[in-house]
């Protein structure tokens, strides 16, 4: 089953942008692109692991193409002109990256970036990094399908601060259970 892996700010936002698309079968949020094995959210949040908050998207290529996913990622899911930040979130863990799984994905992603750049789709240059996919560490369960679980509190991306406060409470509950 084909997979696309993107990092572009908070993985809650990215996941909520892709889950409703026809052809997206399921998504998993996690961490990739860094040095630490089995990182936790707390580890990645320090900005010291080298990992980015990321999203794996499993899709049906008969219903949605990899190129369409890349274009959606770059034009709808986040701001690819922001370096190491998205909205209120700052740090290398929020960088914009496309982690390709094969040469074809790399070429398709680069073609979309080149086209958007040539069209001057954005006022600023695209800073999204293309990198080979490496180990993907699945994030804690409370991060999965976050928007569906906390729709009322989460709302739109600009309400993420409220959601992060709720998430901290959920993490504390999980720690107490363990």
From TrEMBL:
<dbReference type="GO" id="GO:0008113">
    <property type="term" value="F:peptide-methionine (S)-S-oxide reductase activity"/>
</dbReference>
<feature type="domain" description="Peptide methionine sulphoxide reductase MsrA">
    <location>
        <begin position="4"/>
        <end position="154"/>
    </location>
</feature>
<comment type="function">
    <text>Has an important function as a repair enzyme for proteins that have been inactivated by oxidation. Catalyzes the reversible oxidation-reduction of methionine sulfoxide in proteins to methionine.</text>
</comment>
<protein>
    <recommendedName>
        <fullName>Peptide methionine sulfoxide reductase MsrA</fullName>
        <ecNumber>1.8.4.11</ecNumber>
    </recommendedName>
</protein>
<keyword id="KW-0560">Oxidoreductase</keyword>
<dbReference type="Pfam" id="PF01625">
    <property type="entry name" value="PMSR"/>
</dbReference>
<dbReference type="InterPro" id="IPR036509">
    <property type="entry name" value="Met_Sox_Rdtase_MsrA_sf"/>
</dbReference>
<feature type="active site">
    <location>
        <position position="10"/>
    </location>
</feature>
<comment type="similarity">
    <text>Belongs to the MsrA Met sulfoxide reductase family.</text>
</comment>
<dbReference type="InterPro" id="IPR002569">
    <property type="entry name" value="Met_Sox_Rdtase_MsrA_dom"/>
</dbReference>
């Amino acid at each position: 089953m084909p997979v696309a892996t993107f990092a572009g700010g908070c993985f809650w936002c990215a996941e909520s942008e892709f889950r409703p698309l026809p052809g997206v079968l399921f998504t998993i949020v996690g961490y990739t692109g860094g040095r630490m094995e089995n990182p936790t959210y707390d580890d990645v949040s320090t900005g010291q692991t080298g990992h980015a908050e990321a999203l794996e998207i499993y899709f049906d290529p008969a219903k949605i193409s990899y190129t369409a996913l890349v274009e959606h990622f770059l034009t709808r899911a986040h701001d690819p002109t922001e370096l190491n930040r998205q909205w209120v979130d700052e740090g290398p863990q929020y960088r914009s990256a496309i982690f390709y799984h094969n040469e074809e994905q790399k070429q398709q992603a680069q073609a979309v970036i080149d086209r958007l750049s040539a069209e001057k789709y954005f006022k600023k240059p695209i800073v999204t990094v293309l990198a080979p996919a490496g180990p993907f560490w699945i994030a804690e369960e409370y991060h999965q399908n976050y928007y569906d679980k906390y729709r009322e509190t989460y709302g739109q991306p600009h309400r993420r601060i409220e959601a992060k406060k709720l998430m901290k409470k959920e993490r504390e509950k999980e720690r107490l259970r363990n």
